[in-house]
Amino acid sequence: MKILIISQYFWPEVCPLNHLAVGLKNKGHEVVVLTGMPNYPGGSFFPGYSFLSPRKETYSGVKVIRVPTVPRGKNNRLFLMINYLSFAFFASLLSPLYCKGRYDLIFNYQTSPITASLPAVLLKRIKKIPMFLWVQDLWPDSLEALGVVKNRVFLKFIEKFVRLVYKNSDTILVQSKGFVSSIKKILGDVDKDIYYLPNWADDIYCPRNMVDAQKKLDDIPKGFVMLYGGNVGKAQGFDVILKVMLKLKSYSELHLVIVGDGSELDWLTKQVALYDLSRCVHLLGRKDQKLMPFYFAASDILMVSLKKSPLFGITIASKLQAYLASGKPILAVLEGIGADIVREAKAGFVVTPGDAEQFIDVVERILKIERKDLEKMGVNGRHYYETNFDYILLLNKLENWFLEKCYR
Predict the structure, then answer these.
(1) Starting from the edge strand earliest in sequence, which strands make up the sheet with 254-259, in order?
(2) Is the CB of residue 171 less than 8 Å from the CB of residue 133?
(3) β-strands 193-196, 171-174: how paired?
């Protein structure tokens, strides 16, 4: 098959789509990716990229076509909106010219924003081929949950646009089973094939030796390391996390290490300085993805956190799969499906989002647990990952859905 993938985000930005595109290519399919100029999450173009170039690249045998994109900037809602609209506009305008010829199907990676699905809908109509939509974020729920948009009229308008995207998709894939009811509600009486396709972790995430990792890294503190790796944004609830660390700063062996970048990093840096938390809270910034497994291995427990919200309760945070794959115990400040996974896997500890006192109690309990018991939780998590999120298993499912839709 010749598959056209449309996504605002792609390599060298980190997302599951990179692995998926190469996997389909390795199965013998011709894969073309239409995407923007990489600038997430830092807000500026990656080295070697600009507004207009390079227009064409190859990534592990996958042909990559890029359209002009205005960078999202940092902590600037205006530039973020322009970034979203610039990809939607240029990809819609240029895709008929850049993506000529025959394709068997379109695969749209639908994370925020939903506007990035517009070029996929237009090309589907022009080429009259099946379109698969892989829903990573629910819209307009995401906007409402983060407080980005409160105007009910505007939210209703966005919901109508979302319904248009869903209606034009031949098959809808969801990263969490909790998304299904929301999607059906927006679709109304329109019947669609909806399948569960969770994210997986890159192959680089696997159990590694902590000693070897500590030798490779020079910025991991000595003591008990609780590590958060990923986007530093509003959804993660770092205000509560800082309150917890303020209460626990007397534990000299405890260190919270944050590896990542995002809209809240500047605020977080100022708060750490303001409350004199630099001894126990370490902000390492963004690191090369290839180093992340070593940071995980050099840590005692991995933390994932999302604010209390109906939306986040039905979302599987993508870093959860990477944590499970790494074979490390997990501290999950989550509710709903994400929390259920950690409990079912017996892979760590669960804290109710927003409950600072419970958070403190759990961390104090973790500090008293024997290392062999923590290691057993990590082994449990890895086993759960292999059973439920195996990349080859999920890729085979996706390929079968493609074949059924294209050749039935």
Answers:
(1) 281-285, 254-259, 224-229, 301-305, 330-333, 348-351
(2) yes
(3) parallel
Distance from chain centroid for Cα 337:
16
How many Å apart are CA 110 and CA 16, to the nearest integer?
12
Q: Within a 10 A sphere around the Cβ of 102, how many other Cβ atoms?
A: 7
Question: Is this model's pTM higher than 0.90 or not?
Answer: no
Of 301, 331, 299, residue with least CA distance to 317 = 331
Q: How far apart are CA 29 and CA 288, in angstroms?
A: 29
* Burial of 47 (C-beta count, 10 Å sphere; 0-12/13-18/19+): exposed
Q: pLDDT tier at 330 (50, 70, 90 boundaries)?
A: very high
Q: What is the pLDDT of residue 15?
A: 86
Q: How many other C-beta atoms can be found within 10 angstroms of the C-beta atom of residue 260? A: 20
Task: Give 250: exposed, middle or buried? Use CB within 10 Å, 0-12, 13-18, 19+.
Answer: exposed
pLDDT digits (tens, 9 = 90+) for 158-183: 889 999 999 999 999 999 999 999 99
Which stretch of 4-13, 148-157, 294-303, 356-365 has the lowest confidence by average pLDDT?
148-157
Contact 254, 367 (CB under 8 A): yes
Q: What is the pLDDT of residues 103-123, one digit of tens each?
A: 999 999 998 889 999 999 999
Report the SS3 class of residue 196.
Answer: strand
Q: DSSP letters of 85-139?
A: HHHHHHHHHHHHHHT-S--SEEEEEE-S-GGGGHHHHHHHHHHT--EEEEESS-T
281 forms beta bridges with 256
Q: Which helix (H) or strand (E) holds 65?
A: strand 62-66
**Separation between Cα atoms, residue 337 and residue 327, nearest integer Å:** 20
Domains parsed from the chain with CATH numbers: 2-200+390-407 (3.40.50.2000), 210-388 (3.40.50.2000)
Residue 212 has pLDDT above 90, yes or no: no
Measured distance CA(75)–CA(389) in Å, rounded: 34
> In this predicted model, which residue has the larger pLDDT, 75 or 365?
365
Give the C-alpha separation, 18 to 12, whole Å: 8
Q: Are 230 and 260 in contact (CB under 8 A)?
A: yes
Residue 211 has pLDDT above 80, yes or no: no
